[in-house]
Amino acid sequence: DGGITQSPKYLFRKEGQNVTLSCEQNLNHDAMYWYRQDPGQGLRLIYYSQIVNDFQKGDIAEGYSVSREKKESFPLTVTSAQKNPTAFYLCASSANRQETQYFGPGTRLLVL
Amino acid sequence: QKEVEQNSGPLSVPEGAIASLNCTYSDRGSQSFFWYRQYSGKSPELIMFIYSNGDKEDGRFTAQLNKASQYVSLLIRDSQPSDSATYLCAAPSGGYNKLIFGAGTRLAVHP
Fold it and tell me: Which residues on neighbouring strands pair with residue A44, listed in sequence order?
């Protein structure tokens, strides 16, 4: 089955800890995106990547980092510098020169 | 700052009625628009996209675009309780394949 997978479904972070959220797609899409969603709010873009080994900051990149070493994978690290990380994190992808984005199931990050 | 605006709702409609969800956008250059449905606790799923002025129909869903008024809407005919969700409107954000999302309208269909 083609699609986007995210893991884990739930993630708990301790104070001062870095955590990494996984996003994998087998749709052969070039572009991948990370969004953050807070309760009752829309999606805010954290980082996006158009091709392998290249990525750009979105609107709220502070406290986050990404890598794009493989076309299929776009992991997001929430660093200790992100002081309010509790949110629903969504990964998406789109085909080359296509605007339509498809979403993974999401990871809910909670702070202990 | 490009924006996409939606009424947060909740929009409450009886089962079988037509639900009308609206979205306005600030970027006159936007050419395409997307409607996503998001059930509580789940990720958004694409319902429809529209590029041209006028109406686009897909089953019980109709998207309407009026570029002159910078207004896009989603009509859901014969609303069902299973349509109860938050509906997100999105438009291109001026970068490569980037989208900007509205905050969403929560729809509640009651039996």
Answer: A36
Q: Which of B69, B90, B72 is nearest to B20 (CA)?
A: B72
* Structure token digits, residue A4: 């986007």
Instruction: List CB contacts of B69: < 8 A, sequence separation 6 or more.
Output: none
Q: Which residues of A touch B2 (CB under 8 A)?
A: none
Structure tokens at A13: 């972070």
N residues, chain A: 112
Q: What is the dihedral of CA A42, A45, A50, A52, to 10 degrees?
A: -120
Distance CA B99, CA B105 (A): 17
> What gap in Å lies between CA A50 and CA A55, rounded to an integer?
7
**Pairs of residues, one from chain A and one from chain B, whose beta carbons lie less than 8 Å apart:** 53
* Interface residue B51 vs chain A (CB under 8 A): no
Contacts of residue A1, defined as CB under 8 A and 6 or more positions apart, other chains included, come to none
Q: Are B111 and B81 in contact (CB under 8 A)?
A: yes
Hey, what are A60's tokens? 């709220």
Per-residue pLDDT tens for A58-97?
999 999 999 999 999 999 999 999 989 999 999 999 997 7
On the 0-12 / 13-18 / 19+ scale of CB atoms within 10 A, B46 is: middle
